[in-house]
């Protein structure tokens, strides 16, 4: 029964969301206290659960080796669940101020809490079947957030989101069934469940891997299946930050790591050359995301295409199949999440205070909103990867991973992409701080309760650059156990 406690951080936010849908709060302050308490308590319980230092697993329902709802805590799941839970708290407190601007707050926060429970379920999934169930559930939980405004454009984008997500999940399910017919197992195992098996049909294994990578890769915005992500910018800024930094795209990345290292294993992928074919799509993702970002005048859309490119970095870390590259990929998963959520919060603050959405509208706004734009500038420099920022550390490991495989081309691509990143982010900073003309300065900083999450996250960005060992030791432990 003790192991059943693993279900608590999965169910607690979802039950709390349903309760919130039933009860009526006297005012928004009480509702916000309720939501904040639930999300903070969930993190506290997760930390308490992890601090027992016991390997914990639990079969909720088991019909056979495939139809098995199974939860297990391992180091990779710990990294993902802590990242998501911590950033969820920042998003909640930011949303308390931002969402009255958008309306329909109660519905937003209901699905907001529901999605937290689903994300924890993904982190603690012990096999592919359980991961798949929560992966599909994530699409359903985030769909109302994407179409929040209820406009024609939002509904059109919502349909696109469902088509892409369910299409990718169908491919993933096909791959799960095929891998089960070969191995009679879908349980995650260090170095993969195919380890030690005789590989009679390498072509079939390659096809299965490609199907699963592309299927799960939809949520990771793998080119050419990425267009749902920029379209989803129609959603409110807190939703955008969740989609791009934590919940959806990082769940896609997490699933791909599980498939690559806990189902197939690096040795098998080398043998079937699975990484070779996927790396072509990954390089396209890195370069196309950056090139498309250069042509966007809408601030959120520029950040959206930036996410496509940056996710390509993490995917590159996965498919290079060595310790340095995967260390860089996991480190960039963390760094990108913190950087990108900060950038979205800054852009959201600009829209909240000025109603401005486009780069050509924000000339001189750095003098009106110096703290907000200062945080944006620091985060932008970090995403470019200029030393000694956290973005530099993760990209350094990715470059080492490419060189270890004697593939200098990958290191060159990383360098070119970094220059393109500078090309689409730094002009925003220059436009904001150096308008080229003097104008009357009216301070427009957002309320303190919105500014505190932005400044705190920026401080975390700086700290992760100066002291990368905070997360690096955990990541190195994960990598040594699976590569």
TrEMBL record:
Record's subcellular location: Cell membrane; Membrane
One Pfam family per UniProt: Proton_antipo_M
TM annotation in the entry: 6-25, 32-50, 76-96, 108-126, 161-184, 204-229, 241-264, 276-294, 303-321, 333-353, 365-388, 408-436, 448-467
The keyword Electron transport is assigned to this record: no
Gene Ontology CC: one annotated term: plasma membrane
Membrane-topology descriptor: Multi-pass membrane protein
Keywords: Cell membrane, Membrane, Oxidoreductase, Transmembrane, Transmembrane helix
GO biological process, one term: ATP synthesis coupled electron transport
One Gene Ontology molecular-function label: oxidoreductase activity
Chain ranges of the NADH:quinone oxidoreductase/Mrp antiporter transmembrane domain: 125-421
Domain of life: Bacteria
Database matches in InterPro entries: ComplexI-like_HydComp (IPR052175), NADH_UbQ_OxRdtase (IPR003918), ND/Mrp_TM (IPR001750)
Name the UniProt record assigns to this protein: Multisubunit sodium/proton antiporter, MrpD subunit
Organism: Paramaledivibacter caminithermalis (strain DSM 15212 / CIP 107654 / DViRD3)
């Amino acid at each position: 029964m003790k192991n059943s406690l693993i279900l608590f951080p999965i169910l607690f936010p979802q039950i709390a969301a349903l309760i919130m849908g039933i009860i009526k709060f006297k005012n928004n302050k009480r509702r916000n206290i309720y939501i904040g308490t639930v999300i903070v308590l969930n993190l506290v319980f997760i930390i308490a659960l992890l601090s027992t230092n016991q390997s914990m697993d639990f079969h909720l329902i088991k019909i056979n080796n495939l139809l098995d709802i199974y939860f297990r805590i391992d180091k990779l799941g710990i990294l993902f669940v802590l990242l998501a839970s911590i950033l969820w708290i920042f998003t909640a407190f930011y949303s308390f101020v931002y969402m009255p601007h958008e309306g329909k707050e109660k519905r937003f926060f209901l699905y907001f809490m529901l999605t937290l429970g689903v994300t924890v379920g993904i982190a603690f999934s012990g096999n592919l079947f359980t991961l798949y169930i929560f992966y599909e559930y994530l699409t359903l939980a985030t769909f109302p957030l994407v179409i929040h405004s209820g406009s024609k454009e939002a509904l059109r984008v919502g349909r696109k989101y469902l088509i892409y997500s369910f299409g990718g999940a169908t491919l993933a399910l096909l791959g799960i069934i095929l891998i089960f017919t070969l191995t009679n197992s879908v349980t995650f195992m260090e170095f993969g469940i195919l380890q030690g098996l005789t590989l009679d049909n390498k072509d079939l294994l390659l096809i299965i891997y490609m199907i699963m990578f592309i299927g799960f890769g939809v949520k990771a915005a793998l080119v050419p299946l990425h267009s749902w992500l920029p379209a989803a910018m129609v959603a409110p800024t807190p939703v955008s930050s969740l989609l791009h930094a934590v919940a959806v795209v990082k769940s896609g990345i997490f699933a791909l790591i599980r498939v690559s290292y806990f189902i197939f294993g690096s040795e098998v992928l080398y043998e079937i050359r699975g990484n070779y074919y996927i790396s072509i799509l990954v390089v396209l993702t890195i370069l196309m995301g950056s090139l498309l970002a250069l042509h966007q005048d809408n601030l959120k859309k520029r950040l959206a295409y930036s996410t496509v490119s940056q996710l390509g970095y993490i995917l590159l870390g996965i498919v290079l199949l060595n310790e340095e590259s995967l260390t860089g990929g996991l480190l960039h998963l963390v760094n990108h999440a913190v950087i990108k959520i900060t950038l979205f919060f800054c852009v959201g603050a600009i829209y909240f205070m000025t109603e401005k959405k486009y780069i050509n509208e924000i000339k001189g706004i750095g003098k009106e909103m110096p703290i907000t734009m200062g945080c944006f500038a620091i985060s932008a420099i970090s995403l470019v990867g200029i030393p000694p920022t956290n973005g530099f550390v993760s990209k350094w490991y990715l470059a080492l991973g490419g060189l270890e495989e004697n593939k200098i081309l990958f290191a060159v691509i990383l360098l070119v992409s970094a220059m393109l990143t500078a090309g689409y982010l730094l002009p925003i900073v220059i436009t904001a701080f150096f308008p080229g003309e003097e104008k009357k300065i009216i301070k427009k900083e957002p309320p303190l309760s919105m500014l505190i999450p932005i400044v705190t996250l920026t401080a975390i960005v700086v700290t992760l650059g100066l002291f990368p060992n905070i997360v690096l030791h955990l990541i190195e432990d994960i990598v040594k156990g699976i590569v």
